[in-house]
Design brief:
Order of helices and strands: HEHEEHEEEEEHEHHEEE
Distance between the termini: 12 Å
Number of strands: 12
Shape: globular
Number of helices: 6
Helix content: 25-40%
Structural class: alpha+beta
Low-confidence stretches: none
Length: 216
């Protein structure tokens, strides 16, 4: 079962992953109110089970609450890949220094979870795999032991040179694995995992699929 970005973010937040605040709106008026309470520039993001929302016009920056309302008015009701947008997520805009991809998926062949990380964040990982497979570092996890600290660090050093960011990323990877296992997910990804000008590492987008057999 696919879940929306805002639902995936709620799960990741519960496991300690640094996710910016945000609220869901179903009307332009709600979007304006949320933007006003958050203050500053916000992003209005369509909530549908489809990729390519930005290219379809479903992700917009808003400098004022009134602009957030106008964007929500245009986005709500639009169709993205045949899916009607009924909700938008309003969240603070972040200053971005770098974008990376991190994700874990159940590999049916090895019957184990596999981590994938790449510095090519912000685009579909399938696109990266097709055009630049060497840009992806993979790690198969032994489910008996989970993602071990040295394995998380090995993945993190692929993404960052700064020791503090490597440490922060390694922790996020272990938290992501715990969220993946305890949620009964078949896929959990953060794309992009960003760094800010102040050196913080944050998850500003998330996707999770829950195995139907784990819905209990």
């Amino acid at each position: 079962m696919n879940i929306h970005e805002y639902q995936a973010k709620e799960i990741l937040r519960r496991y300690g992953i640094p996710v910016p605040p945000g609220e869901v709106a179903t009307t332009p008026e709600e979007a304006e109110s949320i933007a006003r309470s958050l203050g500053g520039t916000v992003v209005v993001k369509a909530q549908v089970h489809a990729g390519g929302r930005g290219k379809a016009g479903g992700v917009k920056l808003a400098a004022t609450p009134e602009e957030a309302r106008a964007h929500a008015e245009r986005i709500l009701g639009m169709e993205i890949k045949g899916l009607k947008v009924e909700k938008v997520l309003v969240t603070p805009a972040e200053e971005i220094t770098s974008e990376s991809y991190v994700g874990v998926i159940v590999d049916r062949a090895s019957k184990r979870p596999v981590f994938m990380v790449s510095r090519e964040g912000g685009v579909d990982i399938e696109e990266v795999a097709a055009t630049k497979p060497e840009a992806i570092r993979k790690l198969t996890v032994d489910p008996r032991y989970g993602l071990l600290p040295h394995q998380a660090y090995w993945l993190a050093v692929e993404l960052y040179r700064d020791p503090a960011q490597q440490k922060a990323c390694a922790l996020i990877l272990r938290q992501l694995y715990t969220a993946f296992v305890e949620s009964g997910a078949s896929l959990a990804e953060i794309n992009p995992l960003i760094t800010t000008p102040t050196g913080e590492v944050k998850a500003i987008d998330a996707k999770m699929n829950i195995d139907d057999n784990e819905l209990f």
